[in-house]
Amino acid sequence: MYSPEDIYKLASTIWSDPEDIAQFTAMAMGESGGDETDIAEPTYETDEVTGIKTLTNRGGDTGLWQIHPMHFDPTNPKYIKKDDKYQHDLVDLGIVSSHEAAQQELLEPKINALAAKAIARNNDHAGGGLDSWDWGTNSLIVSDEEIDWDTFSPTTFYGRGNQDFGLFLDEAREFGQAYASSLTAQSNVAPTPKRKFAPGMEEAVRSVVGTEIPIGPGTVGRGEMSLLRRTMANLEIPEEIIEMFGKGLVALLPPEYIRDVPKAVWARAGLEIDSKFPFIVTPISAKPFDLNGDIRGQLYKHARGLINGIGNWFVEELGDGTHDADSE
Question: What is the pLDDT of residue 11?
């Protein structure tokens, strides 16, 4: 199952414009809900009087963007080559290897994304699409013309008609801003400092933010600092925070990202943020910690009381060896 964030990262390898990436991310969520293995089942309509079922949709729409069989299955009644305005399918375009293997290959998310891109740009049209096919060179001529999302046909991808499409789109745009900032920071980060996180701290932070967002143990690279500079301006950092910086008990993240994570999420991983310093993550009750002691153990002790009833989630995320998979 792909999360919206996973889809966004995948889409960013296919499209370059942030709005295009967000639109295709939202469409995938509207189409498949992020299930890359989804193949639509046939649907039927039952006559209330006779009880007779009539086939209303043959199904077969495949993968993240629910690619319709009309684009790869010659036996489908709507197969595009039966229409004069179309001249090629996904096999002609080289996106799948054959009609027989097409559906299985489209379960691969990147191939599915390439198919979605081709369909969106009307690569299958004989003429009039954003891109066109040159039969003389047997190659695709890619246009500079951009997709106009205000007039983009909702029937090209029915996911655009999903009742939550607007929500999916807003979330994709929001994540995209944070993701772009993280990539910018990552590309400009200075060489990794010798200082390391206190035991347990990095694992706890990563359990919340994942692996893509740059974090620093008490220090930041040049790229990260440029993101934090506005937030840190005119702030007097308390002595206790400075002490935690020195011992690697503080994680720094781009403020654009950290503000979007609910405090309850940090708490479930035994972490907290201070509203005055929205770029700093510390362990819950870090101040009374024995800074020379077992940080992981103390983290677990303080956080466990806050998340009583959640089960073994916290222990499993920190990986301290106490989780028993058979006990669930």
Answer: 93
